[in-house]
Design brief:
The complex is a heterodimer. By secondary structure, chain A is α/β, with parallel strands linked by helices. Chain A contains eleven helices and ten strands. By secondary structure, chain B is mostly helical. The chains are: A alpha/beta, B mainly alpha.
């Protein structure tokens, strides 16, 4: 459904944030994009949504395809109208607007009838959000804000939803609830999901396929089970150290290998 | 007692003019983050446009407003496209300087086109004095207050309920997020300039009808500045309230203290207010959760 081929992104025409990234999100699946801080995950999502220009970034080579058509030269609005929406990192709600206004804005590209129908759907999905609908969004708790952010994106009627670190700064219980919602949406509404996460353990549980990105490059990809079983992933993303403490020699060995990998 | 009431009444009239001009400032500041130093010039330009329209078409007041406002909105759109849009993405300070440049250009342009002599411009409003209680008013003064009330109501409804009004507040709150829901930020900026020019037209027309049409009206833009700050830079409705308050305070201080007080009273008030509420009376604090 969504395919990136050899994407390269520069900020300010001088800082290379993403290099040669190719990835694919097949329809109906949940695909995870994993990596640590500053690896380039959010940059990729901004490139897909067409909002890099806000931060002086630009795609310098490569292409983004949605169902066979190139979308890398389309306006953010055209991309949304094709069913590709994003829940940005750190929620990015309209803090001074009420919860309901946030949701209504999510349906900015939709008709009034679709907005009303969408509100009912979101309120059914997140009863907590309904209780808070006339409150100022900036004063909600982090978990509630995340629900509003997901609801806002759903108001745009996505066929492919990109989530940028939905677990960021949330309590484990709330993270579980949010991930369950994502799975439900994927199963019941056939929503395709591109999940960007630092929390690899969580992401690999819900995703069917994963990519690992380091320093702007994809260094590893494979099915979720295969990635979860990979020694390097276990050690550096899942936090298993294989029992005993490591000697420095092994660490150095890993570093060599990692460099070679990238 | 009558003296006090008279001072308050005329204060409300000049306050209504400040309020309208201040709303134009706040509208552009709220959605683009730019303080438009050409707002007073925009008021003056649209007043002169109304004057020429009135001279060629011989319209009465209401039709004149209905013709002037759309033309002024078009002028606002063109100015935004020519002077501001190319600066998009530049530092805010650079854009503010561009508006200062625009202000100087408009001032010169008006003198080139219409000359520097003042005109009497009645805008089709009669000059028979109307008594409200014991206070005499010119109809033009009442029109000014009524215009402020109508514009405030219209803007409040627009920002609260219309899709583009909410989008305008959304862009003010978070530009990138607004783009991610499909709002075109540059289109919202253009809309802000358009509406601001429309409000400027109403302010300019009625200001000229109340006083006279002269190429120094732009100075009212600076005089309205205390109103914007008092109301809160990003509160369109607050700017109107700020205008009324400043107008009354200026008039009272002139009446009871003396001639020169009028010019400085407003600025004294904003310094005092900003010490207590740096975001103005109605402006929004930054919402921050930690």
């Amino acid at each position: 459904m969504l395919a990136l081929s050899n994407l390269q992104v520069f900020y300010d025409k001088s800082i290379e944030a993403v290099r040669d990234v190719s990835l694919e999100v097949p329809a109906g699946r949940i695909v995870a994009l994993l990596g640590s801080n500053g690896a380039g995950k959010s940059t990729i999502l901004k490139a897909i949504s067409g909002v890099l220009s806000q931060e002086d970034g630009a795609i310098s080579s490569g292409a983004i395809h949605l169902e066979g058509d190139i979308i890398s030269d389309k306006s953010p609005r055209a991309i949304i109208e094709r069913g590709l929406l994003q829940v940005p990192e750190g929620r990015a709600l309209f803090a001074t607007l009420t919860v309901e206004e946030n949701l209504v804005m999510g349906g900015f590209t939709r008709t009034r009838a679709e907005v009303n129908e969408g509100l009912d759907r979101i309120y059914a999905l997140f009863p907590r959000v309904k209780e808070r609908k006339s409150q100022i969004a900036g004063y909600l708790s982090g978990g509630e804000q995340q629900m509003v952010a997901i609801g806002r994106a759903l108001m745009g009627r996505p066929r492919l939803l990109m989530l940028d670190e939905p677990s960021l700064g949330l309590a484990p219980q709330i993270v579980d609830a949010i991930f369950e919602t994502i799975i439900t949406l994927n199963r019941e509404s056939a929503l395709t999901v591109l999940l960007v996460e630092q929390n690899a353990q969580l992401a690999l549980q819900v995703a069917s396929y994963g990519y690992i990105i380091e320093n702007g490059r994809i260094v590893l990809d494979g099915s979720a089970e295969k990635l979860a079983a990979n020694d390097d992933v276990q050690e550096f993303y899942l936090g298993f150290s294989g029992g005993a403490r490591k000697s420095m020699r092994d660490v150095k060995h890993y570093k060599r290998r990692k460099r070679w990998l990238s | 007692m009558d003296f006090l009431l008279l001072l308050i009444a005329t204060g409300l009239v000049s306050g209504a003019a400040y309020g309208l001009i201040a709303m134009g400032f706040a509208l552009i500041y709220k959605s683009t983050g730019v303080v438009n130093f050409a707002q007073g010039e925009l008021v003056m330009l649209t007043a002169y446009i109304a004057f020429s329209l009135s001279n060629t078409l011989h319209l009465s007041f209401l039709p004149l407003v209905l013709v002037t406002v759309p033309i002024s909105m078009a002028v606002g759109l063109v100015l935004e496209r020519v002077f501001i849009r190319p600066m998009l993405g530049e530092p805010i300070f650079a854009i503010v300087m561009a508006t200062v440049g625009l202000a100087v250009i408009l001032r010169g342009f008006i003198i080139i086109v219409w000359g520097s002599q003042p005109f009497n411009f009645d805008a089709g409003i009669s000059s028979t004095v109307v008594m409200i209680g014991t206070i005499p008013f010119y109809p033009a003064q009442l029109y000014l207050i009524a215009a402020l009330a109508l514009v405030v109501l219209a803007m409040w409804l627009f920002l609260r309920f219309s899709r583009y009004g909410i989008a305008m507040r959304a862009v003010a709150a978070n530009e990138t997020a607004a783009m991610l829901v499909g709002v075109s930020v540059s289109r919202i900026h253009a809309l802000a300039w358009m509406l601001s020019a429309g409000i400027a037209a109403i302010a300019g027309l009625l200001f000229a009808a109340n006083f006279k049409l002269a190429p120094d009206i732009w100075f009212q833009g600076l005089r309205s500045f205390p109103a914007v700050i008092l109301g809160g830079m990003d509160s369109v409705v607050g700017a109107a309230a700020g205008g009324l308050i400043i107008g009354v305070i200026e008039n009272l201080s002139q009446g009871y203290v003396g001639e020169g007080m009028r010019e400085i009273a407003g600025f004294i008030v904003i310094i005092l207010v900003l010490m207590v509420r740096p975001f103005g009376l109605y402006g929004s604090r930054d919402i921050e959760r930690v």
